[in-house]
Design goal:
Blueprint lengths: L1 H13 L2 H19 L5 H8 L8 H26 L8 H12 L3 H34 L4 H18 L4 H16 L1 E2 L6 E2 L13 H19 L18 H23 L6 H14 L12 H24 L5 H12 L6 H6 L1 H31 L5 H20 L2 H19 L5 H23 L11 H26 L7 H8 L3
Antiparallel strand pairs: 1-2
């Protein structure tokens, strides 16, 4: 009952005129950003971080959440109309959605994506409402060794799941941890990796890292691969669905809602894997299996619902444990740090107005997105005609102006350029970005919890394994690390030859 009361109070916060305006701005920006290929919600939130210093935290986070949900909606538009996913999670939607569009059913594909996103987003947010307090109660029992184990699991999971190569994942994590170490040692007061520059004594601001890696790095990467010819956009009619479309879509919507949420809540779970699982499930269960590969509406409805449900699941570990599992949640975690807030179990106790106002705004933003996406789909499609040089030149301009406006420091602009070149390089060489950002944000926290655990045990390493939870987490870490060898051994036992080293090296080159 306390949860329902808190949610009602959250609606009182979210329904104020100012916060409703922030929600509308967020969902509109998020949809536009999701529509534009190559610009994801992580980049948008990173760009807005320097510009929101003067806003109240509640308004800023309501806007960020709107951008997050809106990006999930908008990503399906490019997948369906030009076969170019605006978000990685929309890749599966492109498989069937674009085929539907080429058969003259673009309107039905967009409608099932929008309505499915609304239903799944609402169900996912309801699960967030009732699951988050349970997670908070569990987190309050954590000791320093448990927190360190959970963060270590996040590191290993991110490196093992994100990208095609574990080696590159751990390399990206190492870069992030190194950046996180820059500054002054909190225990000894010694300078670390500051190279005699006084301004680096406090380390590199996470906002500078986020904007440099996401916004500047992505802009440079897209500019290096820029196509001069504008994409061909499939025409759209009135966005709605017939009775048969409804009959074939409602079950995939519900199944996708319950598939996506748990994956979003897992460390490095993300939304790419559950959307693929949803597609395979719908293909297996459908009575119209022959249509798959040629524009089956179930292949759009299920993955899009899964995509948006996982977005709600991502907020569970971020709010209750302070653990980011996607790029957007990592940037939002840096936004919490920007306001001097630390996500975790105590956040619900210390900042209930912020937390429940944010959660309530998800219901409001989800409704706004449905109202924006159904009638205005042709308008969003016109954004695809914006010349890319103008778009990315504007991103670089606003990123630079925003960073300089925060601290009025030329060093921030130099760091922005260096980190932007680093972001370009890691894309060029196929390193995943999420482990780097997780390393920057969680590295100092993991170091703090490690030192606390060792201080409590007088330096005995056994102090890192003092509870059943930490033992279970280390067992999960061992499974993550050993799984490739176990899988090869199982294949050998079944008489299947394991993959040769040469193809494995080729796969590692895929980003």
């Amino acid at each position: 009952m306390d949860t329902v009361t808190s949610l009602i109070e959250g609606f009182g916060t979210a329904l104020t005129p100012v916060n409703l305006l922030y929600a509308l701005i967020g969902v509109a920006l998020g949809t536009a950003i999701g529509v534009l290929p190559g610009i994801g919600p992580a980049m948008a939130v990173a760009l807005l971080l320097p510009l929101t210093f003067e806003l109240e935290p509640i308004g800023a986070f309501i806007m960020f959440a709107g951008i997050y949900y809106g990006g999930m909606y908008g990503g399906s538009t490019t997948s369906i109309l030009i076969n170019t996913p605006g978000e990685a999670a929309s890749v599966i939607t492109a498989v069937e959605g674009n085929r539907m569009a080429k058969r003259g059913r673009a309107a039905q594909a967009l409608a099932t994506a929008a309505i499915g996103s609304f239903i799944a987003g609402t169900i996912g947010t309801l699960m967030l409402v009732f699951f988050a307090p349970v997670m908070v109660g569990l987190a309050l029992t954590f000791g320093a060794d448990d927190y360190f184990a959970v963060m270590l699991l996040a590191f290993v999971a991110a490196c093992s799941v994100m990208g095609a190569s574990r080696v590159r994942g751990f390399a990206s994590l190492g870069i992030g941890l190194t950046i996180g170490l820059i500054g002054m040692d909190p225990t000894t007061g010694q300078s670390r990796l500051a190279f005699g520059i006084p301004q680096l004594a406090d380390g590199i601001d996470v906002v500078v890292v986020a904007v440099g890696i996401f916004a500047v790095g992505e802009a440079l990467w897209v500019a290096s691969r820029l196509r001069r010819t504008p994409p061909e956009v499939v025409p759209i009619g009135r966005v709605w669905m017939g009775r048969e479309d409804w009959r074939r879509s409602w079950k995939p919507w519900l199944r996708g809602s319950f598939i996506g949420f748990p994956f979003g809540a897992l460390p490095a779970g993300g939304s790419e894997l559950p959307t693929f699982l949803s597609y395979m499930l719908e293909r297996r269960l459908s009575k119209n299996r022959a249509e798959f590969g040629n524009g089956a509406i179930e292949g759009v409805a299920g993955p899009e619902a899964t995509n948006n449900s996982s977005a709600a699941g991502v907020l569970v570990p971020m709010l209750t444990l302070g653990l980011p599992t996607t790029a957007v949640s990592a940037v939002m975690l840096s936004a919490f740090q920007q306001y001097g807030l630390q996500p975790g179990p105590l956040l619900f106790e210390r900042e209930p107005e912020l937390v429940w106002g944010l959660i309530a705004s998800l219901f409001i933003g989800n409704t706004m997105l449905l109202a924006l996406n159904l009638p205005l789909a042709p308008l969003w499609a016109r954004l695809l005609r914006i010349p890319r040089p103008y778009l990315y030149a504007g991103i670089l301009f606003f990123a630079s102006i925003g960073m300089y406006a925060v601290g009025s420091s030329a060093l921030d602009l130099v760091l922005l350029l260096i980190l932007g070149l680093l972001g370009f390089a890691i894309r060029r060489f196929g390193l995943p970005i999420i482990p780097l950002i997780i390393g920057v944000i969680l590295g100092p926290m993991a170091e703090l919890q490690l030192r606390r655990a060792l201080q409590l045990s007088n330096g005995d390493l056994a102090g890192l394994v003092t509870s059943p939870l930490s033992i279970a987490i280390y067992a999960a870490i061992a499974l993550f690390l050993a799984w490739p060898a176990v899988r090869s051994a199982l294949r050998a036992l079944r008489g299947r030859p394991a993959s040769s080293p040469e193809p494995a090296r080729e796969r590692d080159g895929v980003s």
